[in-house]
Design a protein that fits this description.
The complex is a heterodimer. Chain A is mainly alpha-helical. In chain A, 72% of the residues lie in helices and 0% in strands. Chain A has one domain. Chain A is built from four helices and no strands. Chain A starts with 6 loop residues before the first helix and ends in a 5-residue tail after the last helix. Chain B is mainly α. Chain B has one domain. Helices cover 74% and strands 4% of the residues of chain B. In chain B, strands 1-2 form a two-stranded antiparallel ribbon. The interface between A and B is large, with 70 and 68 residues.
Chain lengths: 128, 281
């Protein structure tokens, strides 16, 4: 391929690049906003990370995080931003599935779908 | 770090993460390897919270950098996708192990991986053009590709797929267990086992790190390892630091900065192992 890659492939690469950039940017803004709010409310307290207790259950599940963020609780907002960040590579894999369907490359449709399913099961809290 | 309130604690962690992201991107070693020792050794954070925060920052830098690389056309998407089957399964196993191993054992493994990364990063890149012949599996999976070189595209072959796949599984386990990107292991798999051109190996590795880390992140989140208030300054610090580091690539100084960063890595590695053995972490 002396003259490079097909135009469709490059266009999709640009879309994937845009999704990644937007995902990181939105995540950073949400996390920063939640962070400022959190420091404003609790900044004078003492940090407690020496002993592991694990996060409360509402910050561990997708539905719990949505609820907390909608209720404008500071830690819930930050966790929501982190969720957007984690979703970014997942979206990239999903877009790749679409790309391989367009290319009629069915081996890779299968491979990429498998990766996507693993990611979704992990995020949904499926215990292996 | 006693007596700090949350605002001061968060501020110091932000600065530490900023430095880690800066030097990590400048040297190509990534910020993740330094975040966990920073949080555990200096800020006295439990290693599970530290791994959770580090993992979040790894996803941020990988996605940020991949956005730029994807356009340049160096990453090999087919190789990445096929190997991600190994890294995601590995990451899930690693995150599963993290909940079962003692923190002192995790700390010792972390130290060993740090030493490996420091040692590996000293070696010069091996491949410029890829192997002479494509192996059967790589041919079946249409992994051969080309990369931009001097205005045109240079074709390369791919080989050693089973070995690469195996090393990638281990890279996934390490990533899920320790909350790092394990870029060094990923590059090892592609550079040494599959003999891809070096620039293709590094950009494809970066492309893959985010997906591997996202697989572990699900498990970490469900187990309560990801503390939003701790992950916040780490993520924002590493992102800012690596963005600056990527722009301030002053060629003349990189070598000495690299050596300094390596020295820091080795000290941290020894400290992690020592603390693990004496049971203080």
């Amino acid at each position: 391929m002396a003259n490079g890659r097909p135009a469709g492939e490059i266009k999709l690469d640009n879309i994937i690049g845009g999704v990644l950039r937007a995902g990181v940017l939105i995540a950073a803004v949400v996390v920063a906003a939640g962070g400022i709010y959190y420091l404003h409310k609790y900044g004078d307290l003492r940090p407690e990370y020496k002993f592991f207790r694990g996060e409360p259950s509402d910050l561990r599940s997708l539905t719990g995080i949505f609820k907390d963020a909608l209720a404008l609780r500071s830690r819930g907002i930050i966790q929501m931003g982190i969720l957007v960040l984690v979703a970014t590579p997942v979206a990239r894999v999903a877009l790749s599935v679409v790309a391989f369907i367009f290319e009629r490359d069915y081996i890779y449709v299968l491979v990429t779908t498998l990766v996507l399913v693993l990611l979704i099961l992990s995020l949904a809290g499926y215990r292996i | 770090m006693h007596g700090l309130n949350i605002s001061e604690f968060t501020g110091f962690i932000f600065l530490g993460a900023l430095a880690a992201g800066f030097f990590g991107s400048m040297t190509g070693l990534g910020g993740g390897v330094i975040i966990v020792p920073l949080l555990t050794l200096i800020f006295g954070v439990d290693i599970r919270y530290a791994a959770g925060a580090s993992l979040v920052s790894v996803i941020a830098t990988s996605s940020g950098a991949a956005a730029a690389y994807v356009r340049e056309g160096f990453s090999n998407i087919r190789v990445a996708m096929f190997l991600e089957v190994a890294t995601t399964i590995g990451a899930l196993s690693g995150a599963f192990l993290a909940a079962r191993l003692q923190t002192s054992v995790i700390s010792i493994i972390f130290g060993a991986v740090l030493l490996f990364s420091a040692y590996f990063s000293r070696k010069p890149p091996k491949n410029i053009s890829g192997p002479e012949k494509t192996d059967r599996i790589a041919a079946l999976l249409k992994m051969d590709s080309s990369y931009p070189a001097g205005g045109s595209f240079r074709h390369y072959n791919v080989a050693g797929v089973p070995a690469g796949f195996g090393i990638m599984y281990v890279a996934g386990v390490v990533s899920g267990l320790l909350g790092i990107g394990s870029g060094a292991l990923k590059v090892l798999a592609m550079d040494r086992a599959m003999r891809l051109p070096f620039k293709v190996s590094t950009t494809t590795s970066n492309f893959m790190i985010g997906v591997t880390a996202a697989a572990s992140a699900g498990v970490y989140l469900n187990r309560g390892y990801i503390d939003p208030a701790l992950a916040m300054p780490v993520m924002l610090g590493v992102l800012t630091g690596s963005a600056i580091g990527a722009r301030v690539l002053v060629k003349a100084q990189v070598r000495s900065i690299r050596l300094l960063f390596l020295a820091v890595l080795i000290v941290l590695a020894v400290e992690m192992i020592y603390n693990g053995v004496t049971g203080r972490l």
